[in-house]
Amino acid sequence: MATVIEVFADIGCPFTHVGLRRFVQDRARAGLTDEVQLWVRAWPLELVNGAPLDAAFIAEEVHDLQALLETQAFLGFEEAGFPASTLPALRLAAAGYRESMAVGEAVSLHLRTLLFEEGKDVSQEDVLQAVAADFDLDVTAADLDSVLADRAEGERRGVIGSPHFFTPAGDWFCPALDIARDADGQLEVAFNSERFDEFIHSCLV
Prior knowledge:
- There is one protein chain.
- The chain is α+β, with helices and mostly antiparallel strands.
- It has one domain (3-204): Glutaredoxin (3-Layer(aba) Sandwich).
- Helix content is 50%, strand content 16%.
- Strands 2-1-3-4 form a four-stranded mixed β-sheet. The chain has a two-stranded antiparallel sheet with strand order 5-6.
- A hairpin with a 5-residue loop joins strand 5 (177-181) and strand 6 (187-191).
């Protein structure tokens, strides 16, 4: 039986994109792709925060992450193409998980690749329809209900923000990165290799 790692996250969160990329890479190196699955649950920040994510703010975070990490993670990111809402993409990811754990994970990762590596606006109907067709998915009203249910479940379990992982050994908020702001409000990001290794070990053993 596969181990399921839950993570509450928003598709528009660049920190999540970094964490998921690194998780998937380490899982593949360990030869555990089939044995350890990701359940990427919705943590819709526009509902949590009461306002859509700000494209300029996200672009600032992406800029700082590009300086810290490999640029491939944000190769084609376009501030102008950042979605006005991530709810339609989260709903599509939920449709993937309604099909199977493997399909849901693949859709969740693909949507983030489109946004951060290919500069696609994942709120646009043509983009979403293409993804749905690629994975042979039909999105229904139940999938929006699933997004809202994930948010409620995240609140019940004390989710701090995006991404917040739940593993057999405990829970981890944004384990790959240390994130803070200095006295002038400038973003400060550092990769926490020791903490990330500890997190990965808790998932892959």
